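# nightly structure sweep
# worker-07 picked up a monomer target from the shared queue
# config: single-sequence mode, recycle default, output format = structure tokens
# input follows
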Amino acid sequence: MTWRKKLLLFTLVGIILTTLSACSATNQANSPSALTTELPPVRTSGDIISEGRVVPKTFVNLSFQVSGKVSEVLVKEGDQVKTGDVLVRLGNRAEAEADVARSELELLNAQQALDDLLSNHPIERARALEAVARANDRVRYAKYQLDNFTIPQNQQNLDAVEAVQIMEERLDKARLAFEPYKNDSLLNETRRKLKEALDNAQSDYNAAVKRLSYEVELEAAKAELQQALDQWQKVKDGPEPEQLALAKARLNTTQIALQAAQARLDNLELKATIDGTVAKIDLVVGSQVTPNSVVVTIADFSAWYVYTDNLTEIEVVDIELGQTASIIPDALPELTLSGTVESIGQVFEEKRGDVTYTTKILLTESDPRLRWGMTVLITFQK
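# output follows
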């Protein structure tokens, strides 16, 4: 029987005894021989009495995010641990560690590639500027050659390609005409005239080819210059945007891959998330764990709280933050501890027809015999 129930029982017995005494006094007063006697009034302290439970300052229930077989259990119940301490490890770590190593190497290479791209930019910029200058010189020289070339009179109205085609046709005709006379005497007048016509046709053809070559050279130089100018625009203010974007994308991808590999490895270790004591552990080497199943509980026993969740709406309005309370554990009735109200719940619960609120009390003193979950009787003092 809890203290609250005992208290309610004692109160009920007191009320019955008081009623019986009052009835007896009334009968005596009605008898002729009765003496008039006044009973003292029943006084109550006005304190609010409730039941509660002892809990540690804070605690966490830890679980793995993946399934696997336990390979190492590094702690036992009662051990003190710090945040980040490894408590339990799962097997199959070799593959996960290899993935992390590969991802680290890939990240290193990606970072090096980006660093090289940035550090080499001054050189690339200088090369691009040099290419512009070289192409510009080529254009200027090609223009000089073309501007200083004298186009034969018979090609003035022809473009370079047409001139080559027409001059080639004339050359072929002159060669065919001369062919029958090429072995004749040099004194042969017909041979002399045909040879002169052949030489003129050859000269005209050579001029047309040279003109065309100069124009081709100029067009190629202009194209080279434009290409050099385009490259210069890309690199003059920094590395080439496409290359920089690719290098950054590669680095980002490898970073994500490393994070994923590290997460897979980390998921094979269960670490403490608070400083405290291992309150419970349900694992041995070889155990099979499933995701999100609690396997370790860590608690901070440096301070104790008492929670009471059965204060009614009538009682809770008389409770204030900082109000003192005395606490008697059911298991240690000779022990009285003090505490102060630290928080009062804002949200209600309905229990057995009553609207109730949870109150949190910080114990200002402790006892080594206290245990998590012990029931206590709480007296809120006015």
